[in-house]
Amino acid sequence: MSSSRFTTQRDVLIVGAGPAGIAAAIAAATQGLHVEVIDARKPPIDKACGEGLLPASLESLAALGFDLRDLLHTEGYPLQGVRFLNGKNIAEAAFPLSSGRGIRRTVLHELLVDRAESLGVRFHWENAVRAIEPTAQSAIVRTNHQTLSTRYLIGADGHQSRVATATGLTASAIHSRRIGLSQHYAIAPWTNFVEVYWSDHGQAYVTPTSSNEVCVAYVANQRSSTATEALSQFPTLQHHLANAPLSGAARGSITLDRKLRRVTTGNIALIGDASGSVDAVTGEGLALCFRQAAALALALKADDLTLYQKAHRRIRRLPSLMSRALLLLDRSPRLRNQVFNTFKRRPLLFELLLQVHIGQSPLRVFGTDGLLAAGLQMLTS
Prior knowledge:
Blueprint lengths: L5 E10 L3 H12 L4 E5 L12 E2 L1 H9 L5 H4 L4 E3 L1 E6 L2 E6 L5 E3 L2 H14 L3 E4 L3 E6 L4 E5 L3 E9 L6 H6 L4 E14 L7 E7 L2 E9 L2 E8 L6 H5 L3 H6 L5 E15 L3 E2 L2 E3 L5 E2 L7 H17 L4 H26 L1 H13 L1 H11 L12 H11 L1
Parallel strand pairs: 1-2, 1-11, 2-8, 5-13, 11-18
Antiparallel strand pairs: 3-7, 4-7, 5-6, 9-10, 10-11, 12-15, 12-16, 13-14, 14-15, 16-19, 17-18
Helix pairs in contact: 1-4, 1-8, 2-8, 8-9, 9-10, 10-11
């Protein structure tokens, strides 16, 4: 960690060393830019997370130059598809082209840091932002340890981004706000699918992360004081986990479906949750930030952040659509039962929805069937 009071200007300074910030650093470094990252914490960095990398997330990582073989050499678990469980109604579909991966958030973070450092990215840990001074040609960031000058400043510092606040990029529309709680259980996985359990209290989604552990993320409108209380709302899942010891402490979080009016201004840009988000039930958080990172790096290389603004809007369009459809099912038990009954009668519908959701089939596939198009319209209108 640098102790100097002032260092020379770099191309890109990123505030926030979560997956979004590190992915942005990797993408920018592969474009030949000098990149540094600051974070108030120090590794290992953990947070509440479903811990599943769907195929789209892995494809986006590969597009950043990340060697996916590194994931296979670490402790994790292959994911073959997604299963929704709503009472006695079950809808499931396998990933059509490639598998996903369940992996602990701390392990993923370590892999991303290693990849960034191998590209020459410099990290400044335990550097808390104290002030941000944007100018026409650069930005100055003052931390508790040093003062840094940068040509481009990137905010990857979460929903309550200090970069967004300091640069006037906070105007947003919040479509939903829910409470998340994640807990690991020491138990051998009973499935190689991501399982999403639905109830009138919210969802619980289960991701195997190793041969002897699963992660359960609970998402609801009301806060549960403990994982045991949250689990009690899902009897079938409670049966699976009846004798499973807790592994580590539960972690809470807020999940938002939030859209910012703008994610760039001058030489400042936002990425990840700082730039808006979709509800956690979509499982799209990591895939979104990896795609944003690739688009941001191209805009930085071209010296034109308007390219990123346009790309960001395009990248979040489909995940936002899916998020609002799933939240509509969460709010309406009657509609949810109708939809799950339809999934039961027409399993191909769920398969097509999953393919669209993970980017392995175009949205226009629904135009080939009037009933499917009408169903999608019903879910999203």
